[in-house]
Amino acid sequence: MSSNIDFFFEPESVAIVGASHKPGKIGFELVRSILECGFSGEIFPVNPKGGEILGLKVYKSISDTSSKIDVAVIVTPSKTVPNIVKECGLHGIKGCIIISAGFSEIGNRKLEKLLLENAKRYDVRIIGPNSAGIINTSANFHACLEFRVPKGPVSLISQSGAVGGVMFAMARAGVIGFNKFVSCGNSCDVNEMDVLKYLLRDEETKSIAIYVETLHSGRSFLESIRKFKGLKPIIALKGGKFSAGLRAAASHTGSLASPYAVYSAVFKQCGIFEVPSIGSLFSSAKISAYHSSSNGERVVVVTNSGGPGVVATDMCESLGLSVPEPSERLKEKLSAFLPSICSLRNPIDLTAMAGYDWYFNTLKELSSSMEYDYILSICVPPSFMDPMDAAKAIVDLYDVYSEIPVIPCFLYGSMVMKSIKYLEKHNIPCAYSIMDAVYSLKALSYFGRLRGERS
Amino acid sequence: MSSNIDFFFEPESVAIVGASHKPGKIGFELVRSILECGFSGEIFPVNPKGGEILGLKVYKSISDTSSKIDVAVIVTPSKTVPNIVKECGLHGIKGCIIISAGFSEIGNRKLEKLLLENAKRYDVRIIGPNSAGIINTSANFHACLEFRVPKGPVSLISQSGAVGGVMFAMARAGVIGFNKFVSCGNSCDVNEMDVLKYLLRDEETKSIAIYVETLHSGRSFLESIRKFKGLKPIIALKGGKFSAGLRAAASHTGSLASPYAVYSAVFKQCGIFEVPSIGSLFSSAKISAYHSSSNGERVVVVTNSGGPGVVATDMCESLGLSVPEPSERLKEKLSAFLPSICSLRNPIDLTAMAGYDWYFNTLKELSSSMEYDYILSICVPPSFMDPMDAAKAIVDLYDVYSEIPVIPCFLYGSMVMKSIKYLEKHNIPCAYSIMDAVYSLKALSYFGRLRGERS
After folding, report:
1. Residue A253 pLDDT
2. In this model, does residue B257 exceed pLDDT 60?
3. HSE-CB of A49 using CA atoms within 13 angstroms
4. Which residue of B33, B145, B166 is in closest CB contact with A412?
């Protein structure tokens, strides 16, 4: 079998085996997704009934197509899959993405073994089975059951389609999203390590998020990946940490799970930053993608709201980031334009009265002070303030200075949606919660240190 | 001075001293908030310029009003405040809510002392200074700088107006909100303990959320509050836990802060459940308000998405909740209507194919099984599923059975907004993240145990 898996992401033609005529069915929605997301290659729906789906001719079998096809997406009942893989191989198809479930994840290891034997015999690479599909937004290729996703520099490897679905919905709350997504499912052939190595080479991928429940071989993962330590930001969320979670992970992907401590050790040795939640996985990956040359651990919190500033400071300290007071000289500079109601001790509390000027001038002074490595800029608009003032101050700052990253954390929901979209349109990634923001800062600091060790 | 502070929440008449004619100014927005939120009592804007604001006659001074006034909200410059408090006392006003900042929080302890002396001499109770105001949604009384807030059973005491602002915005993402809100500011007179004792008596308040940076006397707080242990759910977020956070908290409310461990010990002895974030503070308080008679620590996770189910299970276990497998008998019952692709080991993974029937029947069996104390119901809709199916299954379940709480956690954002609103309209409070959901479950378990000790 080819060790190259690049073709999965940029196929010139794709077959959907198990395409359905019924809206709402997976076999229909998959054709619709590929079509509507603007895939420019040829699409071959396959269903023994023939006919048409969304204006596309439906072929009765793979061999009926008589065309060269790169990739097949399979959504037929599990027992039919091994034979379809064989057919695909005989037709010259290089890889199958198997959405169909009902293999090792429900104990049906025999069927999975048969599938893999056919794949090897007929030289077909397999993603899945029990995969939610793959996405490459650069090629407008969306062979996936999850909702559409905004384009961006983050790539995601996930042993759960729905973890991807949640992250894609988070991306839609802003503007910045994903480049590639792979749901490995049961990983009977192509596994997380193979995809990770591909993404480490992929120029469009600036950071990599991983949701992993089980690695098939921790040792070979470690040996393959640790040489890339510090090359690109990699952030992981481990699913199945404790007894019930391990049991659940085993049900979910059909693999045996190792103790959590083994994973943490492997992540650490490979330079993979671990986070505790889906939200922090998304924001850390997104923010690391944009600020991949930053360094240090000194954070200054600029806020228009005391309480959220204090909570952010607590979280920074609990993760080992430092939140030092400004020098007397810097305080003097700030007090030249900030009134005495503002606190200058870090967090810099601009109070609810803060508008564009206070934000802009404060950010400018802090950015050029050399006293900090990151600015966490919090805004909770009171009823009389438009948060767009603070958003514009941050965007305008980047036009003048861009010495250190400014991480905006505007709270909450519809109150700040316009500001978040404005910031992200200007390539300034936002965090949606204080915890997500602080994990992202910690990630920047972590990768900064790794790059230092590498160089 | 009166030890009763009830009058603050149900005034028959209110003066706004420092009312402004200019939209966008605090003195204007405050009048607008009180007016637009439907306050039924009399409103007396006070400003030496006179005239009209939003159709209301403006009085040149308090004494000009010649009417009985219960409460004055003060937004004038700090140095004018002590004298205004005196005027209020002479006019028979029982309490002042002082929004004005510029007192001990910026080191101006002398001015705060003077203010307090006048309050004592002229028999006026004080909330603030440096308060963001108070809200009582039952009386449509919104004397607050924060945005409007949906009504609900949660009351909030906060040393930060903006923490309230974030929580109110979170409430607006659903339907269920707040009953009362008090921002104590510098707490020169009425402090968190006084408000807490009031809310413990208040029948409309079903649960209490507290954001606290500093308690003025941990010992008297402990002595006053611990006798109410287990009476109502109380949830706290402590701001200012470590060195920089403590420094920030000191700047924010002008008080000296004790080590974090002291607070944790006081909370524990008073039966106050501690949470780490604003999101978990809101969801724990909201969910505790509705499920205040629940008990136990056995959670069953019902999900249509494997990964989020595993993440939830991990978080449950990390907080000490148990996530046990169903009995063989219960598994048999479930497998009577669930196909073999579903995992029945807890999390119960209904897979992406789950619609109304699978959710409803599964929830019904689990709810009546006596094997669990809580159901965490996760839904991450894939592109071909309407999450309203799962939402309706939960609402319909409550019509038939309501043995144990079902906590919905639908993810994420606009994809599930309609479902969340539908559930909350039917008095089923939702969590917006897995972490928030799990902290809420832990809160229910914590308060269940306390009630057991109490009875």
Report:
1. 58
2. no
3. 8
4. B166
Q: Cα distance from B154 to chain A (closest Cα, Å)?
A: 19
Query: By the 8 A CB rule, do B174 and B424 touch?
Result: yes
CB B37 within 8 A of CB B141: yes
* pLDDT less than 70: residues of chain A: 1-2, 245, 249-257
- Tell me how far CA of residue A320 lies from CA of A297, A424, B47, B242, B299, in angstroms: 8, 28, 50, 11, 33
The pLDDT assigned to A340 comes to: 86
Cross-chain Cβ contact B145/A352 below 8 Å = yes
Three-state SS for B236?
strand
Those residues whose C-beta lies under 8 Å from the C-beta of residue A229, and which sit 6 or more positions away, are: A269, A270, A271, A450, A453, A454
Of A295, A292, A217, nearest in space to A262 by CA: A217
**Segment holding A338, helix H or strand E:** none
Cα–Cα distances (Å) from B175 to A113, B150, B417, in that order, read 50, 6, 10
pTM: 0.95
- Cis peptide, bond prior to residue B129, ω within 30 of zero: yes
Q: What is the pLDDT of residue B383?
A: 80
- Cα–Cα distance for residue pair A42/A382, rounded to 1 Å: 53
Query: Amino acid identity of B406?
Result: V
**Interface contact A277-B308, CB threshold 8 A:** no
Model pLDDT, residue B341: 84
The first and second tokens of residue A340, run together, are 């005495």
A265 part of contact set with chain B, CB < 8 Å: no
CB contact under 8 A, A173 and B414: yes
Residues of A in contact with B31 (CB under 8 A): none
Rg (CA), chain A: 24
The verdict on a CB contact (< 8 Å) between A145 and B352 is yes
Total length of chain B: 455
Asked if B377 and B390 touch (Cβ cutoff 8 Å), the reply is yes
Instruction: Compute the nearest-CA separation of A351 from chain B (Å).
Output: 10
Residues of A in contact with B413 (CB under 8 A): 169-170, 172-173
- State the amino acid at position B54 in one-letter form: L
Which residue of B22, B30, B210, B384 to mutate against A (max A Cβ within 10 Å)? B384
Residue contact B247–A314, C-beta within 8 A: no
Count Cβ atoms within 10 A of the Cβ of residue A31 and give its class: 0-12 exposed, 13-18 middle, 19 or more buried. Answer: buried
For residue A34, the surrounding DSSP H or E stretch is: helix A26-36
With residue A70 as reference, give the H or E element that holds it. Answer: none
Q: Which residue of B has its CA nearest to A212?
A: B307
Distance from CA of A73 to the nearest CA of B (A): 17
Please name the member of B163, B305, B384 whose beta carbon is closest to the beta carbon of A160.
Answer: B305
Q: Is the pLDDT of residue B384 over 90?
A: no
In a mutational test of the A interface, the residue from B314, B335, B342 whose CB has the highest number of chain A CBs within 10 Å is: B314
Q: Is cis: bond before B382, omega within 30 of 0?
A: no
CA–CA gap between residue B168 and residue B195 (Å, rounded): 19
Residue that the structure tokens 């000194």 belong to: A298
Backbone angles phi, psi at B12, to 5 degrees: -85, -15
Label residue B66 by pLDDT band (50, 70, 90): confident
A162:B324 CB<8 A: no
Q: Is B417 on the interface with A (CB under 8 A)?
A: no
Cα–Cα nearest to A167, from A264, A250, A277: A277
Q: What is the pLDDT of residue B228?
A: 94
Q: Which pLDDT tens digit goes with each residue over B394-422?
A: 999 998 877 899 999 999 999 999 999 99
- Residues B385, B398: Cα–Cα separation, whole Å: 22
Q: What's the Cα-to-Cα distance from A129 to each of A44, A103, B64, rounded to whole Å?
A: 20, 7, 80
- Contact with chain A for residue B278, Cβ under 8 A: yes
Residues 5-44, chain A, touching B (beta carbon < 8 A): 24-26, 28-29, 33
